[in-house]
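Check the record.
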Amino acid sequence: KFNNSEIRLVFSGTFYNGSIKYLDLLSKWLFEIKLSNKNLYNSIYIDFYGIISKENKIFENHNNVIFHGFKKREFVNNKIFESNACLLFLTDDINYSFSSKFCDYIAMKKPIIVFSSNGLTSEYVFSNKIGHSLSFNDNFKNLLFILSSITKPENYYIEFDSNDFNLEKLTLDYLNIFK
């Protein structure tokens, strides 16, 4: 069930062109939500921060999807903190990656919605109960379930230590390995 509040999703970072098919999929599902539940559709806001080259045409019929371009880290981190969940789009050949943005999302204990083919990252997110994954095997009803779930942040990070994903700590750990 949905309440009348906003649902805010954030993507931050560099978007890889190999993942464009997942933007198409998201756009298609948003259109299906718009047809089936206009009030819900009007409560969804998706913000993209960073470098994304092909955004304009895919979401031209969705005023609730905004591409902000590059912004300062503090500004973007505040937007991530204010969001209900964060988006991660992986190409099929790197569906195992733990990007720096992935670590930021975890350090802030934000539910993560991974768009990718099945791989290590989506399995990790699912098995640790820190978010969800979506692929072409899913449909917009799966997205509806996720949108309902992320409005309850207490459902995530229950037995997960997000401190291990602090980027400063990770950097120091790697530097110590290479000494």
